Amino acid sequence: MTGSLPPMDVAARLDRLRAELDGAGCDALLITHLTNLRYLTGFTGSAGMLLVDHDRATLVTDGRYEEQASGQLAEAGVLVDLVVGRTTDQQRDALSGIAPARVGLEAEHVSWAAQARYDDEWFPRSSLVPTGGVVEALRLVKDDGEVARIERACQIADDALATVLPLLEQGPTEAAFAAVLDAEMRGRGADDVSFDTIVASGPNGSRPHHTPSARQVEVGDLVVIDFGALVEGYHSDMTRTVPVGGLGALDET
After folding, report:
1. DSSP secondary structure string, 188-203?
2. pTM of structure
3. Cβ 35 vs Cβ 135: under 8 Å
4. Taking a C-beta distance cutoff of 8 angstroms, is the pair 68, 79 a contact?
5. Tens of pLDDT along 206-253?
6. Long-range CB contacts (within 8 A, 24+) of 16-25
7. What are residue 73's phi and psi, to 5 degrees?
8. Other Cβ atoms closer than 10 A to 195
């Protein structure tokens, strides 16, 4: 699937977050959940933290992502201080030196051990404040660019299934059909699948989270297919139940 998508207003998100800091009881919020980090900055790396206060935002990551982070921040138009720490100590020192009196943690995404480490080593001069769902509440309201990516993810998944659906008549295994469907979604422009695709045929259809198996699809089966595509961080998720051999085949069984 081709065609450009409208831009997302990533640059405005940090100010929306800053407006929530006082209500969350903190002077700055430490973003450690990677989905929230991507939402606020456009950075898609697998390691990073973002400290946001009323006046500035600082992203720390490691040397693997120096070029990637710089490029993605610029592309999103997000103004943050980028600190590339080759070691954990360097990253810690970069944040601890600018931490205000009250630092909020994303309580739903921080383990007990991590909280103790932040308290003892990262922010010893700050009070740590547990927060819940601050960024997630912002993410509930989608801009036009986000909606367009969700729609693209839905269209890719829908078109992919329509393309491969006739293969069920050839009696593939559940696992083989799932693999073909996944490949078709990627071939149509999905960055990845949203989750492990479920293909549950015949008696396996009663298992909501069945793992595709070596069972061969048979004429007369009902096949439950639960699948989705991922486009620039936005998911689709759909379930279809189809008869193999058409409805007439079901009448004959």
Report:
1. TT-SEESSPPEEEEGG
2. 0.90
3. no
4. no
5. 999 999 999 999 999 999 999 999 999 999 999 999 999 965 554 554
6. 16/138, 17/52, 17/134, 17/135, 17/138, 18/52, 18/53, 18/54, 20/134, 20/137, 20/138, 21/52, 21/53, 21/54, 21/104, 24/104, 24/129, 24/131, 24/134, 25/102, 25/104, 25/129, 25/131
7. -65, -45
8. 13
Taking the C-alpha atoms of residue 7 and residue 36, their distance in angstroms, rounded to an integer, is 18
pLDDT in tens, 102-130: 999 999 999 999 999 999 999 999 999 99
Residue whose structure tokens are 């990677």: 34
Q: List the structure tokens of 243.
A: 């008869």
Tokens 């590339």 belong to: 84
